[in-house]
Specification:
Rossmann fold; 42% helix; alpha/beta; 304 residues
């Protein structure tokens, strides 16, 4: 899989590119392949995972449904470096600039739809703003957000249902003290196993391993960056200025305790009235895995 060099500081950035095969594939859907010819999805992962968190979606979407699937590793996660030989302060805008650099470098990339989860949703919005500045926004056909960490994932008088500072501090302390033990103890909460949502131990181990691969400073700095960025005005601007042809679908787990519906998708709906909000009652923050079949149906529905 390919790497690029970040034009910001020279960091090595990795991305996955699953192209539909022209040969025999496993469980092909000829009708879906015909409908989705030349369509592309660009996945942006949540914190503190990597692009591999979407494997169970990307593989069937590319090989069964004929959709090109690209997924970036945010700097410091997966196979991407946190900083390059000319380091500078890393911000949300840094992540967006990195993603834009990947978009510009991907061979034969035409129009595409963003698929993002958690922190990745805000990143996709910032990338779209950058693309407008570069006259590239026509490439973006739409957005599919899952459990977005938007508009402001920190409890205040204006966002009373968001996670409090004490919770973020507890998370950071857990990572500092014993990352592996903390992730093992808390990973079930991301996927809602405490609510009876089924997830195998081997699947939990897969996601634990993704978190273990991340750079320690990337985990801590990204947590600070995402929990201290207010997207309210950007969401309002996006809602009032986006083209009618750019569709936004938001998928949210009804049992999401990481970023509750009241703190996230409901305020997004107030800022962007034409958003297609779908609530998965028996899912939590990690609906991309535990409700993968429903998520895939909603992705395909938006594309078609």
């Amino acid at each position: 899989m390919p790497y690029i060099t970040s034009p910001q500081d020279g960091a090595s950035l990795f991305y996955i590119d699953y192209r539909p095969s022209t040969q025999v594939t496993f469980q092909p859907d000829p009708d879906s392949i015909a409908r989705n010819k030349d369509k592309t999805l660009f996945f942006i992962h949540g914190w503190p995972m990597s692009g591999r968190m979407y494997e169970n979606l990307m593989l069937p979407l590319s090989q069964t449904h004929g959709i090109r699937c690209i997924a970036s590793d945010r700097r410091g996660f997966g196979k991407s470096e946190w900083q390059g030989p000319e380091p500078a302060e890393v911000t949300y805008d840094t992540f967006a600039e990195d993603t834009l650099a990947i978009i510009k470098s991907v061979k034969d990339l035409g129009d595409f739809t963003f698929v993002a989860s958690s922190m990745g949703c805000g990143e996709s919005l910032l990338v779209y703003e950058l693309m407008k500045e570069h006259g590239l926004e026509q490439q973006v056909q739409g957005f599919i957000w899952m459990g977005p960490s938007l508009p402001y994932p920190l409890k205040t008088a204006f966002s009373p249902h968001a996670p409090p500072q004490e919770l973020w501090d507890m998370i950071l302390d857990g990572f500092r003290q014993d990352r592996t033990a903390f992730v093992k103890a808390s990973i079930g909460g991301v996927f809602g196993t405490q609510h009876g949502i089924e997830m195998s131990e081997t699947a939990q181990e897969f996601f634990i391993d993704l978190v273990k691969q991340a750079d320690a400073i990337a985990i801590e700095r990204c947590c600070q960056i995402l929990s201290n960025y207010d997207f309210n005005e950007k969401l309002k601007s996006f809602g009032s200025s986006k083209s009618d042809g750019v569709k936004l679908t938001v998928l949210h787990g009804g049992k999401d305790q990481s970023m509750p519906l009241e703190a996230s998708s409901e305020p997004i709906k107030s800022h962007i009235p034409d958003v297609d909000l779908k609530i998965y009652e028996n899912a939590a923050h990690g609906l991309y895995h535990t409700a993968a079949s429903e998520v895939m149906k909603d992705i395909l529905a938006q594309l078609n």
